[in-house]
Specification:
three-stranded mixed beta sheet, 12 strands, Rossmann fold, globular, alpha/beta, 188 residues
Length: 188
């Protein structure tokens, strides 16, 4: 990736973060349940999800809806420069970067491989499946271990025609937005 492309990524992140400030962010409850149905995930199976921060689409209600649907929900836990996973049992604690994390025992990064569906936050996603995250690479490092479909959750305007990509970027299989629902990728 050229320095110009890196600069473009940084500029995009700044612009997208600014657009989210003060925006009403969707709770994504019905949408994630439609993704569960779209990918044929059955009660008893595992779904990796996340607890949305104040500037991300999604909500704790989204996570609770997955659990109420009879799914085993794993949530990320920041450990050093990587993500681990723990089962969500309704209890959360304060974690790194001001995130809320499950209180359960750590299962290892490879636990993402047991998930029938992996829901991840993003700042934007393009039609080829490139996901623009916050820039730390936490999800890119762990998503290589995923065996189930990886679905990025964004606002409608954050599903864009193209984004700059680096060799380490892990592409997502689908995007989930409030108006469009599940869009399988690539969507060219």
């Amino acid at each position: 990736m050229t320095s110009g492309e890196r600069d473009r990524k940084a500029t995009l992140r700044t612009r997208l973060r600014a657009a989210r400030r003060g925006a009403v962010l969707p709770r994504m409850v019905d949408e994630v349940l439609s993704a569960v149905a779209e990918f044929g995930v059955s009660p008893g199976e595992t779904v990796c999800a996340y607890v949305a921060s104040a500037v991300e689409p999604g909500s704790l209600a989204m996570v609770e809806a997955l659990r109420a649907h009879g799914l085993r929900v794993l949530l990320p836990v920041v450990v050093g420069d990587g993500l681990d996973w723990a089962a969500y049992d309704g209890r959360l604690r304060a974690g790194a970067f001001g995130l809320r994390e499950p209180e359960g025992a750590l299962l290892g990064a490879e636990a993402v491989g047991s998930a029938a569906l992996v829901l991840v936050p993003a700042l934007a996603v393009d039609r080829s499946g490139v996901r623009l995250g916050k820039g730390g690479g936490y999800y890119d490092r762990v998503l290589r271990l995923a065996t189930g479909p990886v679905v990025a959750v964004v606002r409608d305007e954050e599903f864009v025609p193209s984004l700059p990509a680096e060799p380490h970027d892990v592409r997502v299989d689908a995007v989930l937005t409030p108006a469009r629902g599940v869009v399988r990728l690539p969507s060219l």
